[in-house]
Amino acid sequence: MTILFHGIDLVDCRRIEKVVKRHGQVFLDRVFTPAEQAYCNRHRSATERLAGRFAVKEAVLKLIGTGWRNGIAWTDVETLNDPSGKPIVQLHGLVAQLADEMGVQQVSVSITHAADLAVASAIGLGCDK
């Protein structure tokens, strides 16, 4: 596979914490899938993990090149973890369709945290055409 596209994003964890306090479950359900919420809520640092997943969503949309428009839902980008804890991305809906049209067969992500920041990098992999 070849690297076709890249996206990166930086999120302030305090910003996510404020939005969750202000909008609660409405925000969580709009932005995060039930599986993402369950994973984050199992950890003491739930806000940090939510911020990381938010950064992944933004990084993937930068990779696709669309931003949040034309029917794209926040939950079209879902970050789960494999058995070893490595973050994996599953694309759904319109984002999956757009990625397929671009030749993206797999999205590989990395998430890191420093102080009150979460950073995600997303790489779109596919075969040369």
Indicate the topology.
Elements: E1 2-12, H1 13-31, H2 34-41, H3 46-64, E2 77-81, E3 87-91, H4 93-101, E4 106-114, E5 117-126
Antiparallel strand pairs: 1-5, 2-3, 4-5
Helix pairs in contact: 1-3, 2-3
Structure description:
There is one protein chain. This protein is of the alpha+beta class and 129 residues long. It has a single domain (2-126), classed as Alpha-Beta Complex (Ribosomal Protein L22, Chain A), CATH 3.90.470.20. It contains four helices and five strands; from the N terminus they run βαααββαββ. The chain has helices spanning 13-31, 34-41, 46-64, 93-101, and strands spanning 2-12, 77-81, 87-91, 106-114, 117-126. The protein has a three-stranded antiparallel beta sheet. Strand 4 and strand 5 form a beta hairpin. Helix 1 (13-31) crosses helix 3 and helix 2 (34-41) packs antiparallel against helix 3. The radius of gyration is 14 Å and the shape is globular. The N and C termini lie close together (11 Å).
Please sum up the structure shown.
The protein is α+β, with helices and mostly antiparallel strands.
Query: What is the third-level CATH name, the topology?
Result: Ribosomal Protein L22, Chain A
**What is the CATH level 1 assignment?**
Alpha Beta
Order of SSEs:
EHHHEEHEE
Domain unit count:
1
Q: What's the Cα radius of gyration?
A: 14 Å
Low-confidence stretches: none
The CATH superfamily is known as 4'-phosphopantetheinyl transferase domain
Helix content: 40-55%
Distance between the termini: 11 Å
Tell me the number of strands: 5
Report the principal-axis shape.
globular
SS element count, helices: 4
What order do the strands of the largest sheet run in, or round the barrel if closed?
Answer: 1-5-4
Question: What is the second-level CATH architecture?
Answer: Alpha-Beta Complex
Computed structural class: alpha+beta
Quote the average pLDDT. Answer: 94
Percentage of β-strand residues = 25-35%
The largest β sheet comes out as: 3 strands, antiparallel
